[in-house]
Write a structure and sequence with these properties.
Length: 235
């Protein structure tokens, strides 16, 4: 086994023989509310690995630079080494979660335009909401990078939203992380039901980690349904 470089809430990262590439292992561990709620979702790692690989391959074809290299096993993918920016980019299309509470809108109300938000990646602070000026003061990213984060967020939103509507899935909101690889800004992390809110367009059924957060049950079944709609694979 190669050297373990990092273990997060949902993934482990290992060194490889190539200094420019990492191996990412997807775990079944589940957390919510900044780690306050913990549990296990059977096969989540397998499902998120396959779902993320599908989205990364699709975005690559659409011209979105990202860290994905290839699937290695059911739970592992090879990725390009990134210096991760300490900023989470959240794009929202419909009021839900913290946004619904913050602006006083009922959950499910469509926003007149997509909203892009930035969060400071700091567990001790609870990943607070920040703006471009905060990012400048904290030296988290350059002005050019901040503009690119917003532009890429909106482009990815357009690509994913259009595709998912054809699968009868509404993209409510989602989180993205980016990093630098050989001087280039690349999309990293994952795109999965852990990091996105997916609702069935006809029934409004939640097909994402909110089923775990809110004790709605059938969490594994929801993740499996997302994979089935994307790829036709029954896992």
């Amino acid at each position: 086994m190669k050297e373990a470089l990092y273990e997060g809430k949902a993934k482990k990262v290992y060194a490889t023989d190539n200094p420019n590439e990492y191996l990412v292992y997807y775990k079944d561990d589940a957390t919510a509310f900044n780690g306050e709620k913990k549990g296990t979702i059977h096969s989540k790692g397998i499902l998120n690995n396959k779902i993320s690989a599908f989205f990364f391959e699709m975005l690559t074809k659409a011209g979105v630079p990202n860290h994905f290299v290839r699937i290695v096993s059911d739970r592992e993918m090879l990725v390009k080494k990134l210096e991760i920016l300490q900023i989470e980019v959240v794009v929202r299309n419909i009021a839900a979660g913290s946004l619904a509470k913050r602006i006083g809108w009922e959950e499910g109300r469509k926003l007149p335009l997509p909203i892009v938000e930035f969060y400071y990646k700091d567990d001790a602070l609870g990943d607070p909401l920040i703006n471009e000026d905060h990012a400048r003061v904290l030296n988290l990213a350059t002005d050019e990078q901040m503009k690119a984060l917003k532009d890429w967020g909106l482009k990815i939103n357009s690509i994913l939203s259009t595709f998912l509507k054809g699968k009868k899935v509404e993209l409510i909101d989602f989180k993205l992380e980016f990093g630098i690889h050989n001087g280039e800004l690349l999309l990293g992390d994952e795109i999965s039901p852990d990091t996105c809110r997916f609702w069935d367009t006809e029934t409004g059924q939640k097909l994402d980690k909110d089923r775990f957060r809110r004790d709605l049950g059938d969490v594994e079944a929801a993740y499996k349904e997302v994979l089935r709609r994307l790829t036709g694979e029954v896992c």
